[in-house]
């Protein structure tokens, strides 16, 4: 029997693929705070930390400001 190759699908769909790049800069004091925080809480992936923190802050603000009927 011949070995059949399985089709490998990408782990990330087109909708969730990150294609929009943003750049952020910090001053020395801000960078020291970030480094200390990441070291204290053992955060190794700063990019993921920044992304999750920004998105959670946005979602929280949207939740606070949702329209009400009364």
Please tell me about this protein's structure:
With 70 residues, this protein is mainly alpha-helical. The chain has a domain at 28-64. Helices cover 46% and strands 0% of the residues. The longest helix is centred in the last third of the chain and has 19 residues, at 46-64. The radius of gyration is 20 Å and the shape is flat. The protein starts with 27 loop residues before the first helix and ends in a 6-residue tail after the last helix.
How would you spell out the order of helices and strands?
HH
Mean pLDDT: 88
Distance between the amino and carboxyl termini: 70 Å
* Tally of contiguous helical segments: 2
Provide the gyration radius in Å. Answer: 20 Å
Count of individual beta strands:
0
Uncertain residue ranges:
none
Main beta sheet strand tally, sense and closure: none
The helicity comes to 40-55%
Q: Beta-strand percentage?
A: under 5%
Structural class: mainly alpha
Q: Looking at the structure, what is the overall shape?
A: flat
